[in-house]
Amino acid sequence: MYLHCTEGERTLIKKLIGEGKTYKEGQKIIGCSAKMISNALKWQTKPKTRGRKRNTTIRVDHRITRMAKKHPMISSREIKEELQLPVSTATIRRCLREAKLFARNPHKVPLLKKKDVFKRLCLSKNTVTGIKWHNLTVPAKRVQDITEVGESSVSEESDPIDEPPESIQELTELACLKH
After folding, report:
1. Would the pTM count as exceeding 0.90?
2. Distance from C-alpha of 121 to C-alpha of 174, rounded to nearest angstrom
3. Chain segment 5-30, per-residue pLDDT in tens
């Protein structure tokens, strides 16, 4: 561990040692320890680092990694907003990669929302023909019943080939009306 001294003390120590004074004599003149004198003689200025300066400090990097470890499903944009950082999301992802925390992507596929289910049903109803729609929507057991009996249990007014069962039909109507 280096004991710190000022630039003036450092030059004085180098001057005294250069004149041939011992550590003990320099200690008494300056009023410091022998370790401080040896540290002052070993001391060298650090060269400037190359490249661009970092946007984030070490403390901010630790806050980002702590947040990412606490909430594994959180995205880099959400980390930026929650910590109110003035850096880009790419900088946050870079910081996380340096901390060996890769890909701020969810661990599993999110569940479909009702809106997405409606859109899918509306699309399939509009693109699939009546017979194919019937095959998709009518359960296999009901299809067997229809073929065995020869007539469906559905009334004559509603043709099962043209229309899907009521529950799915209601869903698709809602979807088509909403969007």
Report:
1. no
2. 10
3. 888 888 999 999 999 988 888 888 88
